[in-house]
Write a structure and sequence with these properties.
Chain lengths: ~200, ~230
């Protein structure tokens, strides 16, 4: 009679690679914010983790200061300080709650939690979270502004030009319908009211 | 020198009991305040003034509101936003006043950093009730600056309280729902500074070509001006 060996009863579990943990910024005084979109918005403002995966998104921490041109060919989470110019072409940019940017910004999708002094161009979308402070002009196809966000500047909604190189040409909708779909508002689940100094 | 008289002060509750007001309730802590719709004749006339042509530049002087930006850009216009009250109450503008332990607003610094636009930049301006809440020394300079940056025949919509509700009167943000409806949402705490009489409004905007008054709800006068 075969007597199974203990080591045979339980096949050794294969070593599974741990799923990439979300990149979590250092703790800040701001409350946790709602996660809205996958991948780029899987950042929480609670205690930072040490097992940060950097396979999908480049990360600039809050202690990093950069002066000059910042460009790249991958998505970027920026929680530090940048002075100069940021150009990510067809990639996404998230400016974290500790982010302080004094630069013009160009990216595909731009999500702002922190402070930006400069013009922002989002080829697809620009999103201002409730802690966002933006002093500059916005040029984009779509914009999402949470209650509580501070914005000073102009908004220029520009629709994507049709690609004439053999692809499907999008039939433009009437201006009123198209532009009204370009801006959406979102109300976070719990948001402290933005307030002036009390007298 | 423009003198702004202080009318008799009555608590807001007095007028609510008398007229049965239905002001939006304050928000619970941690939640956004609810929005209550209000039909606005003044805003309806303002919308008619900016309907055509496309491509106008509209300045919103209230807090950032995606509803307002959506409405303006939906009409095919370019929207500008500048929260004048937030800027006017910034701590960086507070300087020592003439009397001991008093403070005042640095008007020169405000005008150097805020409402900085080329002359005749805007086809229309949404001023809301900013004048009722601005510090005293900023009222006239802000109105003059707005006149300067508004194009000839440009429209200006401003709201003024008709009763002195006192310092407890809540401040409301105005969100645009459609071409004749606004939504009031209780906003950050700004103290009502004054109540204008009609003739004071006319004096304040004496440079404008035309002025029309409309009576709104919640004791608000809506004033549409054309430069």
């Amino acid at each position: 009679m075969w007597k199974s060996r203990k080591e045979d009863e339980k096949p050794s579990s294969p070593i599974k690679p741990e799923p990439p943990a979300p990149i979590v910024p250092a703790p800040s005084s701001s409350p946790a914010r709602s996660v809205e979109s996958p991948k780029m918005d899987s950042y929480r403002t609670d205690n930072a983790r040490t097992d940060v995966a950097r396979t999908d998104v480049a990360h600039i921490g809050k202690s990093v200061i950069i002066k000059g041109e910042l460009s790249g060919s991958e998505d970027l989470y920026l929680d530090g300080e940048v002075e100069g110019n940021i150009d990510l072409h067809d990639h996404n940019l998230v400016i974290g709650p500790n982010g302080r940017v004094r630069a013009n910004v160009q990216a595909k999708d731009v999500v702002i939690h922190g402070k930006v002094d400069g013009n922002v161009t989002g080829a697809d979308k620009v999103e201002l979270k409730k802690s966002a402070l933006l002093n500059g002009d916005i040029t984009t196809q779509r914009i999402v502004i949470e209650d509580g966000a501070f914005f000073k500047g102009a908004i220029d909604i520009r629709k994507a030009e049709p690609n004439m190189a053999g692809s499907k040409v999008e039939i433009p909708r009437p201006a009123a319908q198209a532009a009204s779909a370009a801006i959406t508002s979102s109300v976070p689940a719990a948001s402290p009211s933005a307030g002036a100094e009390k007298k | 020198m423009l003198h702004l008289p202080i009318l008799a002060r009555f608590p807001l509750s007095f007028f609510r009991n008398l007229f049965g007001g239905s002001a939006p309730p304050p928000a619970a802590p941690g939640e956004c305040a609810p929005r209550i719709p209000r039909r606005s004749t003044g805003f309806h006339h303002f919308t008619n003034a900016i309907l055509r042509p496309d491509g106008q530049t509209i300045l919103d002087l209230g807090p950032t509101s995606s509803s307002n930006l959506q409405f303006i850009t939906g009409l095919g216009h370019k929207a500008y936003n500048e929260d004048v009250l937030m800027a006017a109450n910034a701590s960086r503008l507070t300087i020592p006043g003439p009397e001991k332990d008093s403070t005042m607003v640095d008007v020169a610094s405000f005008l150097a950093e805020d409402l900085q636009y080329e002359p005749e930049s805007f086809d229309a301006v949404l001023m809301w009730d900013v004048c009722d809440y601005l510090p005293e020394t900023l009222v006239k300079p802000v109105v003059e600056r707005i006149y300067r940056i508004t194009k000839p025949r440009g429209a200006l919509l401003a709201f003024f309280h008709t009763r002195d509700a006192g310092p407890e009167a809540p401040y409301y943000r105005y969100h645009i729902k459609n071409e004749e409806t606004l939504e009031l949402q209780q906003g950050p705490h700004f103290q009502l500074q004054r109540v204008f009489q009609n003739r004071h409004v006319e004096n304040l905007f004496h440079d404008y070509n035309s002025i029309k008054f409309f009576l709104g709800k919640e004791n608000i006068r809506e004033v549409l001006l054309v430069r």
